[in-house]
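Please review this one:
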Amino acid sequence: MTTTLNDLVKSKGYVVADGAMGTQLFAAGLSSGWSPEEWNLSHAAEVRAVHRGYLQAGADLIVTNSFGGNCFRQSLHGFERRVGELNQAAAQIGRLEADAETERSGRPVLVAGSMGPTGELLAPLGTMGVAACEAAFAEQSAALAAGGVDLLWIETMSALDEVEAAVRAARSVCDLPIAVTMSFDTAGCTMMGVTGKELAGRLGALDLAAIGANCGNNVPDTEAVVIAIASAGSGTLTVSKPNAGVPVWRKDALVYDGTPELLAAHAHRAHTAGVGVIGSCCGSTPAHTEKIVAVLAGEEPPPSVQVVLNPQTALDERLVRRRPRRRRNHG
């Protein structure tokens, strides 16, 4: 690897990460309930097309189609014995498209190997042991590294103990840089009660390439968290990849209501506050990435978009705030 995440941020002042993979694959025909990671083998052209769309929109970093590529998630589809194959294919697909973009445009592009949560809870809250958790992430990390990713991208996490297990596992099998993002979806906390300040405190000392937030309940919550992380002064790059607004029903389809302008306005505010890596998550498209790229490059003025909480979201959050927060101690 000749270019790192820090190299890109130093040269440009920021890095634009890609957008959603899952919702793009569903739009391409992925059936609900099927393994998105299996498409790395059976529908490689469709996965490559998603990466290509974001790269042509100007993304500096793409995240592989391996979010649910651990043995726990793949056991739901009967593919737990194919974890290595699925993840290596995901990495190779991303590498091919990134290298093709570098050849076409001359600009460096990073490939990040996505690793999402196991879907299980560590004991004593659940039945998953630390050894089993680490073995799952080690298997996935090794396959992504073998496929040629530039860094590992542990994302959409809720529990700090699972994050730390994933980091230990990754470092046991490779020396790739590691970025970690958690999902803040309950009144500014993760599902397990972790705050942005706690994330920065626990993860800021792990010598990670970047830390931050992705997915989440809404753009305002994610924005508040990443600004808090950036201002914590850990010295680690901060990442923001919020969803494209919130999902709403339009006729018979569930769609995300966040426009490219909404995310570009967020990107401008986040970058101004010190966030160095900015992209998008569920519901976003290359059009969102293209607008983020144009605004951060100064080619277009920041959109004047008011970010307002969904009324139902605001109600849900008021209810959450009234509940005891005992689970915060489990992080």
About this structure: The radius of gyration is 18 Å. Strands lie at 15-16, 61-63, 110-115, 151-157, 178-182, 210-215, 237-242, 247-250, 253-256, 277-278. The CA atoms of residues 243 and 281 lie 4 Å apart.
